[in-house]
Design goal:
The structure holds 2 protein chains of 2 kinds.
Chain A lengths: L4 E8 L2 E7 L6 E7 L2 E11 L2 E6 L11 E8 L1 E4 L7 E2 L6 H8 L16 E6 L6 E2 L4 E7 L2 E6 L9 E6 L3 E4 L5 E4 L5 E4 L3 E4 L9 E3 L10 H6 L7 E5 L6 H11 L4 E7 L3 H10 L16 E6 L6 H18 L4 E7 L1 H14 L13 H9 L3 E4 L5 E10 L9 H9 L2 E2 L4 H5 L12 E2 L7 H24 L6 H18 L13 H16 L7 H19 L6 H15 L3 H4 L1
Parallel strand pairs in A: 8-21, 19-24, 19-25, 20-21, 20-22, 22-24
Antiparallel strand pairs in A: 1-2, 1-6, 2-5, 3-4, 3-6, 4-5, 7-17, 9-11, 9-14, 10-13, 11-12, 13-15, 15-16, 18-23, 23-24, 25-26
Helix pairs in contact in A: 5-6, 7-8, 10-11, 11-13, 13-14
Chain B lengths: L3 E2 L2 E5 L2 E5 L7 E5 L2 E9 L2 E6 L12 E7 L1 E3 L8 E2 L16 E3 L16 E2 L4 H6 L2 E2 L3 E6 L5 H11 L4 E9 L1 H13 L6 E7 L4 H20 L3 E7 L1 H14 L4 E3 L2 E2 L2 H9 L3 E2 L5 E9 L8 H9 L2 E6 L2 E2 L5 E2 L2 H4 L7 H23 L6 H18 L7 H15 L9 H7 L5
Parallel strand pairs in B: 9-15, 13-20, 13-21, 14-15, 14-16, 16-20
Antiparallel strand pairs in B: 1-7, 2-3, 3-6, 4-5, 4-7, 5-6, 8-10, 11-12, 17-18, 19-20, 21-22, 21-23
Helix pairs in contact in B: 2-3, 4-5, 6-7, 9-10, 10-11
Classes of the chains: A alpha+beta, B alpha/beta.
Amino acid sequence: MDIAKGYVTGVNGNLATVRFEGSVRKNEVAYILAAGTRLKGEVIRVNNGIASTQIYEMTNGIKVGDEVQFTGALMSVELGPGLLTQVFDGLQNPLPQLAEKCGFFLERGVYLDPIPDRSWEFTPSVKPGDPVSAGDMIGSVPEGLFKHRIMVPFTLKGRGWKVKSIVGPGTYHVRSTVAVIENQDGDEKELSMVFSQPIKEAVKCYEERLHPSEPLVTKIRCIDTFLPVAKGGTFCVPGPFGAGKTVLQHLEAKNAEADIVIVAACGERAGEVVEILKEFPELIDPKTGRSLMERTIIICNTSSMPVAAREASCYTAVTLGEYYRQMGLDVLILADSTSRWAQAMREMSGRLEEIPGEEAFPAYLESTIAAFYERAGKVRLKDGSTASITIGGTVSPAGGNFEEPVTQATLKVVGAFHGLSRERSDARKYPAIHPMESWSKYRGVVDMDKVEEARAILIRSTEINQMMKVVGEEGTSSEDYIVYQKGELLDAVYLQQNSFDAIDEVSLPERQREEFAVLYDALMSDYQITDKKEIRGFFNQLRQEFLDWHGTLFQTDEYYEQEKKIKAFYKGWDSEKEV
Amino acid sequence: MQKVYTKIESIVGNVVTVKAEGVRYNDIALVGDSYACVIKLAGDTVSLQVFAGCQGVSTTDPVRFLGRPMMVSFSENLLGRVFNGAGVPIDKGPALTENMIAIGGPSVNPSKRIIPRKMIRTGIPMIDMFNTLVESQKLPIFSASGEPYNKLLSRIALQAEVDVIILGGMGLKYDDYLEFRDEIEKGGSMSRTVMFVHTASDPIVECTLVPDMSLAVAEQFALAGKRVLVLLTDMTNFADAQKEMAITMEQVPSNRGYPGDLYSCLASRYEKAVDFEGAGSITILSVTTMPGDDVTHPVPDNTGYITEGQYYLKGGRIEPFGSLSRLKQNVNSKTRDDHRALMDGMIKLYAAYKESVEKRSMGFMMTEWDEKLIKYGELFESGLMDLSVNIPLEEALDLGWKILADCFEPNETGLKTSLIKERWPKEL
């Protein structure tokens, strides 16, 4: 391999220009040897023998003439057993280990092995002579809850590869050779449990992509019933600051029914990552009875960490996700926030002196965002099993205005839009997802036709509320007033959910179906009450009964009793039943 | 490497270029007598940003590279001293050169952070009781121009239980600086205060150095086990200085002329707020004036995405709505058992009072309940919201109960019966 060498000719912010000799690939990794450290960078443009390289670290102290070592390899992550439960920065540097080595501060130029240095109990699943291709399983190791598949590297090219030799069952070091494969030309490759994968190339070692038809249950009523997310789908959460984007994502990370959750904290507050770091190990996943951390990977490149690595952190997250998807698992990736990633692109584009697009974002903003979200999907793997990656990204629009480029580019490519509103969060209505502005193209856990009818009531109720602000309560007919109250009821007892209440925090799909059925019936009933005070009193009472119902444990005697009580209460007022 | 270059190639805005070799990015140089920082290397052309501005710089002025990044001296001797943005004393005291430390250092490893858990008492009920300030929090005061934000800041500085106060003034009016100094001297806190002051007439580049200087010093004090409070006023001036520099350097502006990296610029400063396990902490309280009282202006908007809440200063009072301390729930369960419930209950009633006031101004009939709320609202505003009120948290809570008891029957407060039994100041 002809690996280029070069030297620095200029520095501007986190962009260095490098004169090189030899061959250089776009997006290959280069190291700058400056001030006694090796600083990682990525070639993002090659022009006239000059490679523009974005540096993933602070560039202080680099001088013209500093040596640059190219690697010939694209920006990659290491894949292998032991990734779960870890906390990485955007370049897959394990942060706790870094802290052990360097103390309080993130020292630049220190790159540690992301794969834990240990041995695993390996069970082979192929035998010599078996044909293999990229992504095929050759054995497995137990990683926490999962059977971690050891696979042929996804980047293996060409056909006709066969297993030449493979070790028997036993304990092997993660980096030791477990198999050797060869092709007809006599090329041989030694495989260990670890291989590397470029982060900007989507992994395509599957049979076919499937339609995302199965809901990804988040146990948040408002999402699962009204604005569902599908396994293999995409969704975005834009909202102004303080509307609860991050809190909502933490709830999803905690409660979503995915096998693996990867949280990419991209350019946001470090304090929020710390909350996950300290909280998740303590929480028990009810499905498995194990710590939530055992299904979680955190990629964190917080706002004060080098900007260039922000973009990498999103790709690192999705590549790790694809690795676990290849094992037949359902993966949920939560990126907070994609706006910071877009801003990082904008900074780099400015330094490259590219012609700016809207709000100085680069012209390729939309296609880059689209390509990222397109890496989500439900697939059928070669062994027939299905697996998925679901991507949810928050967007932080400037001034809370959704008309800005990042929100608009994201809305074009996602399957569900959960827009958070300042009014709802100010009124302490959580989750602050705006029920009318938001939409979803996926199927939820409840009969969609009935949901649509309920939504129609909500829309009508809002209209009446607007009208009432002008004509007052006196000028509103009692029929309209009842519809208004129905909408308020739906909002208060179904769309809002108390995440601080141990019981109400999670709502299982069966519970959502049962509760929605009762609520639907109550909303569709015809109440012949004319006095407004009486109407208000009736709905206040009904609301209270529903809220009490949320406070009961699912499928206990209390739960069924409260259900009966609610039914008896509103049916007592229903005109048709009375006649 | 003290080679002197005497041929300045270009002078544009605050930036000079000179042909030199072996210069490192971000190093410091002397252009004439003024410090300057290397901001760009392109071949042998070095661009230097001159801190004192380029006015009067001649093409034959000597340029000497010092071979080190921007540094500030750190020792106990800093306490009681005043410096400008370039770290030069402006209080007639001697220059400090011992134990130099680099500014703008690396960020803290997130896995070494801890969940904030200690309250900072300020004696201001709107803060202590309703939006508690927490050690290691970063919190801006959002304010329209003309509000008494600097007065509030100096009061918090004087009353907060911290070991070291570091004041970073950016674009301060000279009178404001004098006022700050007098207030702190009068309060007897000068001996635990360090000031980095950039006044409105000082060179613009020095303005952008103030937060880095202040925070670098704060970090060293914190590592030495001190609880440090950093006051930054006014961060909008800092952002405007960044804007001015970016535009003179012909960077593509993103939003209302601000550079595209405004968020990163602000975040890298605010994120220095930290609680070191086993050492001290840095708490950042800043002022962000909102041009046109518009919270969607890029500076307050970007700030809101970075900080852990905000205090809204409006009409000389900290507004209960809109103000938010995101970290308050970490500490207010440990203060007194009635703190949270009383805080929520009183704010809900105050919201109802606002509705009644609106109703009254529209000429609607006032019910007995409205009258009660109006009496309550007025007592609340004078007793707790007024910034001149200076009482510890416990007294503020007791006062809260007293106001409630003066205005309402126990069952009208929406508070839990058990709490009322315990705390209601009148005979039940």
